[in-house]
Amino acid sequence: MTNHRGRFIAPEQAERLMDQYLDDLQAIVNIDSGTYTKSGVDRVAAYLQERFQAFGFATRLERQEQYGDHLVATHSGNAPDGPRILLVGHIDTVFPDGEAARRPFTITRREGQRAALGPGVLDMKSGLLIGMYALHLLIASQQANYREVTFVCNSDEEIGSPSSRELIQALARQSDAALVLEPGRALDTVVSSRRASGQYRVAVRGLSAHAGVEPQKGRNAILELSYQVQKMQALNGTVPGTSLSVSIIHGGDRVNVVPDYAYFDMDARANSKAAIQAIEAAMQRVVSQPMLDGTQITLSGGMLSAPFERSQQNEALVGLVKEAGRDLGIKIQDVGSGGASDANNTSAVGTPTLDGLGAGGGLAHNPDEYIELDYLPTRIALLAGLVQRIGVKGA
Ligand SMILES: [Zn+2]
């Protein structure tokens, strides 16, 4: 095997930047940037903007009224015929205002390893900086062998990217590959598929009547709904690549009235377009068969995002990251995830996508969220090596 030392970024090169990296991480973890804390998200964006500029990027802010501003940083590399690569990371966290003061950035030991704690440290403030430092190393060592890199830091991923999805998809359409910086789970994992998630409602229209005097004239919407709940929940596990869970139920408002309306909501997940069609067809069959005459049943809702599938073109990126891993002496594993991310959005417009390129750690969205500090230099080198390989081979 060729000795790539000198051609690719080595973890030792990233190791030398760790003090600076941790200063940056501490600064942005200690700013509350929950999705609904616009002022905090904007402060993190301003901090990152300055850092990107110091590393030679051109930057712009996409101003937002309701949510935080989106930061877009671009860098033209030294390969005019090379690929255009999109990096995607989110600034927002799931934590409320005041969280950073309650439990600020801390370095500690966890099961014998050095770890960092703090709100959003894993999901995904460390990931934003892994992206930034990987590119910084490539630029500083004249190894930016791409045509252009665009790095979008959006403000609202944790609520489904309502104000950034269009921007991300427009940038993805102009890119040869999209790399998403959501957490990896360990030193050696990346994420190559995510299920689509959806919300559906089944509503029953019946007929109200006096519950004591002439209940026989009524059509009890709750009774019909109860059959629907059981038949619908029974679909869970029967359609390959999907899951379904009845999660909210409402019906009736007066105890002496036969209820004429009731509904329930359910969460559904699917790992491919074919699986979405299959589960929706199965739902439709359930609602078309009422048990009580004179009730009407409607099904509404849908998937909120497309699935991020391990398609052939996405698989090419998995191959490249495995190569980059081999050079670093690690066997990369690509795993699937049940939750959606912006990878679902970039892959939906046909851009080859790979996710889970952020830090290794665990307990995202939990107060005990942590990252493994010893993994960071390798994860930075892994991402840099992946970017270089896309430059050489195309995605
Ligand atoms: Zn995230």
Describe the 3D structure.
With 395 residues, this protein is α/β, with parallel strands linked by helices. Helix content is 34%, strand content 24%. It contains 11 helices and 16 strands. The strands form 4 sheets. A 6-stranded mixed beta sheet has the order 1-2-6-3-7-14, with helices on both faces. α2 packs antiparallel against α5. It is elongated. The relative contact order is 0.18. The N terminus is likely disordered. Zinc ion binds next to α5.
List keywords for this structure.
about 400 residues, alpha/beta, six-stranded mixed sheet, four-stranded antiparallel sheet
Task: Describe the structure in brief.
With 395 residues, this protein is of the alpha/beta class. The protein is built from eleven helices and 16 strands.
